[in-house]
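Service request form, structural biology core

Requester: graduate student, group of Dr. S.
Request type: structure prediction, single chain
Budget code: on file
Notes: please return the result as structure tokens.

Sequence provided:
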Amino acid sequence: MRTSRPARIGQYTALLAYLVFLAFPFLWLLSTAFKPPRELGSLHPTWIPADPTLGNFRQAFDEQPLLHAALNSLIAALGAAVIAVLIATPMAYVVARRRTRLAKAVTGWVVVSQAFPFVLLIIPLFLVLKNLRLINSVPGVVLVYVVWALPFALWMLAGYVRAVPPELEEAAAVDGAGRVRTLVSVTAPLLAPGIVATGLFAFITAWNEFFFALVLLKTPEKQTLPVVLTHFIGAEGVADLGPLAAAAFLATLPSLVVFALIQRRITGGMLTGAVKS
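Core staff response, request fulfilled:
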């Protein structure tokens, strides 16, 4: 059924408004990062800085150990993404292919676990990490991020597994391929976009996470980038706006770059040409 012209105009208008809504914070952050102090205090702010400067970036690096904090965030995010994908992939295959009570229970656990607020989880996680002597350590934060990302990663990958026709695996079995050979040679390549998308989700979630890192990491040399960004806010709640905007802009770049590099693989057809007609 063809959509009428007024309806298409309304759809495009709503889409444009949504894109503007999403882009506004980032564009304002970018504009603020390059403004000198006198423009930041102006009563009539402008989008484009009249006298752009890199002083906010220099001041941000001078005041806080941003590179070291970024390294901590990178280790935590990559570690959580890799471990979550390695654990979730075989679990997702079993959940999607085996229609058992255990698989249904796992699916229910995934749904229920997403409803738990951070506050309810932090106390038991803190006690567990204390017993493991992982408080105030990056490996301890990685473990927490894996626990937090695993349910949704399992749910995402299970959906990708269900999209792979079982007939492909049955055909491989008829040709003499064993279970492991079928999984490695037939199923795994078709799951590659899903694995990449899941890893991206886990990475971005861990890179941007603030609450767990704030509670579990106390010494400055162990803190991640989102926690270090709060140091630009003074004791009285007054923010050093220029350096804060510059540091926050740099903190958003890795997520944008990673997504830009792999977005074609995520949006590409997963099974194009896989099934012969």
